[in-house]
Specification:
Length: 462
């Protein structure tokens, strides 16, 4: 339980941080190079750095204890940050954006779709769709692997949670999502109330994207209500649910908000993690060879991996873990302080922006030896158990930990295993892949790679 602290009782300590030489300096620096700006703050000022962001005091926290304070022990004193509050324009009161009792209700109704038994049922679909994509690839062809992984995970979330094949709408969904991600730009967030009323292209694209997603999700809801229950998927669960307090079924808006949130979040983050996996494996051939050796040993007959194989693929999971450490899709987590509080001995006024960055903390040399290097083997043996819990938090933590974390771990491992069984992917040029940090950590301009079939691999192996 959070204790409200009277401002007069707060210690006079101000956290260290850069002086603001002109209004908006922090916002501009964050806009130009978000990951570099936050990394520089932590390197220069330590575990608590204070600065100005969009007219508010802001704090970057880079110690596991302080991260745990915000996400767990005093989580009721921190609401969602401004970026996700703006995303309510699209997502409504979905799991990502809702607060308090609305969030508790949404989590309670959606949770059954992510129980272990359901994920076990999803595993076959995950491997099947990966094999389908692998069967569509052509040897010697060049692909934007980031786009391919986005399409693949969209197909999977469509089948597992909604009982529908979305492959015919992959491109239009991806384009609409690109337009919506402009909402997360810090300058856009500051100017959004004005920009929404101006007849400018970005505003029109954003409005069109919102209309498209409304049409898509309400169409799924209407079709299911007309046709009757499907295979017991998440949409079935939401339509059959009853609010414990009112005894009434949730309204269409509530179902739409949850369905859209899970459609978007359920494929975007895993797709990004896998794109970075392929990028890292191509740059580290020894790790790629060790991955293939494990796959050949466990799946030597060319069969598809299943849930029972996950315990026998520790290095495959370690590759995914190391990708999530170096390139966490949820690269920054924003909160806003409700009441005055103290973090690390420093005064944090009510209304302050709080930033927690897996990008920064998960590259901290105190917790990860050779922190900037890709070393999947660090996740084997006893090393992980010796780290503080919140030195690695790619899915957040506390009551708002990502509800689909286990889904993502299962999906990421199975997709990586299925595709790496058949294919080697090599970059088309030597230029480094640039970052595009928005709502998620996307690779800027994609990850273009040339596909080569592994010797002995069978196309579309089943």
């Amino acid at each position: 339980m959070t204790t409200t602290i009277d401002r007069r009782e707060l210690p006079p300590n101000r956290a260290p941080g850069p002086a603001q030489r002109f209004p908006g300096q922090g916002l501009l620096a964050f806009h130009r190079d978000p990951t570099g700006f936050l990394s520089g703050l932590a390197h220069t000022y330590g575990d608590v750095a204070q600065f100005r962001l969009a007219g508010r005091p802001a704090f970057l926290l880079n110690h596991p204890d302080f991260i745990q304070q915000v996400l767990v022990s005093e989580q009721s004193n921190f609401r969602k940050g401004r970026a996700l509050q703006r995303m309510r324009l699209l997502l409504g009161d979905g799991l990502l954006t809702s607060e308090g009792s609305a969030h508790a209700q949404a989590r309670r109704l959606v949770q059954p779709a992510f129980h272990h038994e359901r994920i076990a049922a999803y595993a076959g679909i995950m491997a099947e769709e990966a094999a389908r994509m692998g069967g569509e690839w052509q040897a010697g062809a060049t692909y934007d692997v980031a786009r391919e992984m986005n399409f693949l995970t969209l197909r999977i979330v469509g089948r597992t949670l909604f009982g529908i094949d979305l492959s015919s709408q992959e491109s239009v969904i991806a384009e609409a999502l690109d337009d919506l991600f402009a909402l997360s730009d810090p300058l856009y967030l500051l100017l959004a109330p004005l920009l929404e009323w101006l007849p400018i292209p970005s505003a029109r694209r954003s409005q069109a994207a919102q209309a498209f997603f409304d049409q898509l999700i309400y169409g799924l809801i209407d079709a299911r209500q007309k046709e009757g229950p499907g295979q017991g998927d998440m949409l079935d669960m939401l339509l059959a649910s009853v609010d414990e307090e009112t005894g009434q079924p949730p309204d269409r808006q509530f179902i739409r908000d949850q369905a859209l949130t899970l459609l978007l979040a359920g494929h975007e983050t895993t797709a990004n993690a896998l794109a970075w996996c392929w990028h890292l494996l191509a740059a580290h051939p020894a790790s790629a060879e060790r991955l293939r050796e494990e796959l050949d040993r466990v799946l030597g007959d060319g069969r598809l991996p299943g849930l029972a194989d996950l315990g026998h693929l520790p290095f495959t999971r370690s590759v995914l873990s190391e990708s999530l450490r170096l390139y966490p899709p949820a690269w920054v987590i924003g909160r806003s302080a409700i009441n005055d509080c103290t973090i690390g001995g420093y005064s944090v006024p009510a209304g302050s922006t709080i930033l927690l960055s897996p990008w920064v903390t998960q590259r901290d040399r105190r917790y990860f030896a050779h922190a900037d290097e890709f070393r999947p083997e660090r996740w084997l043996g006893k090393e992980p158990s010796n780290r503080p819990k919140f030195a690695f938090f790619p899915f957040g933590g506390g009551p708002r930990v990502c509800i689909g974390a286990q889904f993502a771990w299962t999906e990421g491992t199975l997709l990586l295993a299925t595709l790496a069984q058949q294919w080697q992917l090599r970059p088309t040029d030597e230029r480094p892949v640039a970052l595009a940090p928005r709502v998620t950590l996307r690779p800027k301009d994609g990850v273009w790679m040339k596909a080569s079939r592994r010797l002995g691999a069978v196309a579309g192996a089943r």
